[in-house]
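Researcher: Let's try something more involved. This one mixes different molecule types, so please make sure each is placed in the same coordinate frame as the others.
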Amino acid sequence: MERQKKTRSWMKPYEIVGVLGLLFLLTLFSTMMVIEQGEAKAPKNTHGEKPSTMNTETVKENVKHEESESSISGENEKQKEEITKKEEKNSVDTKHNQSVQKLTEQEDNEETVETNEEEIVQVEKDEELDDPGIIDDKTVYITFDDGPNENTKSILNLLNKYGAKATFFMLEPNMRKFPEAVTAMVENGHAVGLHGVSHNQDIIYESSQSVVGEMTKAQTTLEKITGIHSDLIRVPYGSVPHMKPSYFDAVDQKGFKLWDWNIDSEDWKFHSGEFVQKVMDQLKDFPYQNEPKVVLLHEKSTSLQYLDSLLQKLSDMGYQMQALTEQMNTVTF
Ligand SMILES: [Zn+2]
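Model: All components are placed in one shared frame. Result:
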C-alpha cells in the first residue's frame, strides 16, 4: 500500500529539487534579462519610450523650460515694459522737447513781438512830438500863473539848469511891466499863454464877453512884445465854478485853448516848500491815464525858492519837463 502510494507520486524528490532549481535559474535569468533590457533601453527614454519617468522629467524640463520661457517671457515682458516705458519716456521727452521747442519758439516769437512792441513804442514816442493824442508817462508839463514879475528871470535860470521847458500864463499888466521877462521866456523855448487882465473874479466872469475881452487884450499885448500870437489861456482860479457853458462856447469860438490842471501844487497857500512833496505825491498816484501831467505853480517867491528841489526830484524820477502846445488836447476840470 505504501509502495503504491509512493509509486503514485509522478516525481521523485530529487526531480522536484531539480525542477525547482531549474525554475530558480530561469527566474534568475529572466530577472537578469529584464535588468539588462532595462539598462539597454534606458537611452531611448529621452525619446519617450519610458513614459512614466521620462514624462515626469520632460514635464519638469518643460516646466523649467516654460518657467524659463515664462521667466524669459517675464524678462521680455519686463524688457518690453521697460522699452515701452522708454519709448513712452522718449515720446514724452520728445513731446516735452517739442513742447520746450514750441515754448522756446513762442518765447522767441513773444520776444519778437515784444521787440516789435518796443519798436512801436519807440515809433510812438518819436511820433508823440507831432501827435497830441499820445501821452508820455514820463513827461510833466509845469505851468506858472500870474507872472511875469521880479522872480521870472530866476525861474528861467533854474529851468535852463535842468533842461526843462515850461508854460507861462501871464497877466496883461505884468507883461507890460516886465516885457524883457516875456521875451526871455520865448527865447528860452518856453510856451507863453494868457491869464487875462483883472484877475478879479467879479470883473472877468461878469459875462462870456468879459472873459473873451480880457484874454484878447492880453493876447494883443503878448503879440506886441514877442510877435507871437498865442491861443493858450488859463482863466483865473480855474474854470470851475466860474466858467459857464456859454463862456466855454465864447472862448472856443475865438479859438482859445483853455487849460486847467490835474496836479495842484497848492504853492499859493504854503509859506515854504511843502508844495514840492504835494507834486511828487500826485505824480506817484496820478489817476488820469489819458491826460498829460499838468502841474500848477505860481511865479511867487516861495515857489522860486523850492523850484530847484522840485526840478531835481523830477529829473531824478526820469521825468522830462515840456511846454504845452496849441496842438495838444486840453485838460479841463
Ligand atoms: Zn492866477
